[in-house]
């Protein structure tokens, strides 16, 4: 049984000081989950250093220092270099440390093989982490305890919502929440173009489109109502909304979105096997 992580005093380290690591660190500090003084990362670039030191995170010059000085280590490097980085740091990553990977497409079996133990958690956030609205999914390695899972759920809960799922579902997660923000940005852009086509100034159209998507998503998330019901609530008989919905249905709107998720999931599966 792995030794428990000391909840009141553990140190959190990021191997990789990119935008996602910064978003997670900022969210954790903002939510009061951890003080910045207990978070560390490493980078030699002055701009990346400043991004973290500006809110109190310790920035070392080398990843080895982060690994040594952390109880929980999050690998937030690009997927193609995860193996190299883990193998380099392996002597500094014993089972007493809880390890986490947010690298897309890298399976737990590989992560565990490279480091030599199973106290690993795979986590998949998405880019709205930057504004505290991530949709995050995690699965636990064989030696990760229930308490380990709770600790990580608490950390990532600071940047949005967290779900647990079997790892076999992660390619589908990639297709939906991983790639999904891009589909919605496309929808916002198209809605704004529609507003402009209908006579609205560009700035007003874009503001209305963005806020409308945000408001609709909030209604679905907060009320818990089925989106079909929420749609019906807006679409009065013979009205404007049902006329618009009719056009979307003629254009295969729902089928196109479904196909996008399935295509992205298929591509994720191909990449994870390559």
Automatic annotation (TrEMBL):
Localization: Cytoplasm
Coiled-coil blocks: none
Residues binding NADPH, per UniProt: 63
GO molecular function terms attached to this record: pyrroline-5-carboxylate reductase activity
Annotated signal sequence range: none
GO CC annotation terms, alphabetical: cytoplasm
UniProt KW Endoplasmic reticulum keyword: no
rRNA-binding keyword on record: no
Predominant location: cytoplasm
Domain of life: Eukaryota
Reaction catalysis annotation: L-proline + NADP(+) = (S)-1-pyrroline-5-carboxylate + NADPH + 2 H(+); L-proline + NAD(+) = (S)-1-pyrroline-5-carboxylate + NADH + 2 H(+)
Biological pathway: Amino-acid biosynthesis; L-proline biosynthesis; L-proline from L-glutamate 5-semialdehyde: step 1/1
Top EC category: oxidoreductase
Pyrroline-5-carboxylate reductase catalytic N-terminal domain segment(s): 11-105
Entry-linked Gene3D superfamilies: NAD(P)-binding Rossmann-like Domain, ProC C-terminal domain-like
Keywords tagged on the record: Amino-acid biosynthesis, Cytoplasm, NADP, Oxidoreductase, Proline biosynthesis
Gene Ontology BP terms: L-proline biosynthetic process
Residues reported to bind NADP(+): 15-20
Pfam families reported for this sequence: F420_oxidored, P5CR_dimer
Ranges where the Pyrroline-5-carboxylate reductase dimerisation domain occurs: 167-271
EC number(s) on file: 1.5.1.2
Protein family per UniProt: Belongs to the pyrroline-5-carboxylate reductase family.
Protein name: Pyrroline-5-carboxylate reductase
Species per Swiss-Prot/TrEMBL record: Nelumbo nucifera
């Amino acid at each position: 049984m792995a030794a428990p992580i000391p909840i009141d005093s553990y140190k959190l380290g990021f191997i990789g000081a990119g935008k996602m690591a910064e978003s997670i660190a900022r969210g954790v500090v903002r939510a009061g989950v951890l003080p910045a003084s207990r978070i560390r990362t490493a980078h030699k670039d002055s701009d990346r250093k400043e991004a973290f030191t500006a809110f109190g995170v310790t920035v070392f010059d080398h990843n080895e220092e982060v690994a040594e000085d952390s109880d929980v280590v999050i690998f937030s490097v690009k997927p193609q270099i995860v193996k190299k980085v883990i193998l380099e740091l392996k002597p500094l990553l014993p089972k007493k440390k809880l390890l986490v990977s947010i690298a897309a497409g890298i399976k737990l079996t590989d992560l565990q093989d490279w480091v030599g133990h199973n106290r690993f958690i795979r986590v998949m956030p998405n880019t709205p982490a930057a504004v505290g609205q991530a949709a995050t999914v995690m699965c636990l390695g064989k030696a990760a305890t229930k308490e380990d899972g709770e600790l990580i759920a608490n950390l990532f809960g600071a940047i949005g919502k967290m779900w647990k799922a079997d790892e076999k579902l992660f390619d589908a997660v990639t297709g939906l929440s991983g790639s999904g923000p891009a589909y919605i940005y496309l929808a916002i852009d198209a809605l704004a173009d529609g507003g402009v086509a209908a006579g609205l100034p560009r700035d007003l159209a874009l503001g209305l489109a963005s806020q409308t998507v945000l408001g609709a998503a909030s209604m679905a998330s907060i009320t818990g109502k089925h989106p079909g019901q929420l749609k019906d609530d807006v679409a009065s008989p013979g009205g404007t909304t049902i006329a618009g919905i009719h056009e979307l249905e003629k254009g295969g709107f729902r089928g196109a979105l479904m196909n996008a998720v399935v295509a992205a999931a298929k591509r994720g599966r191909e990449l994870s096997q390559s």
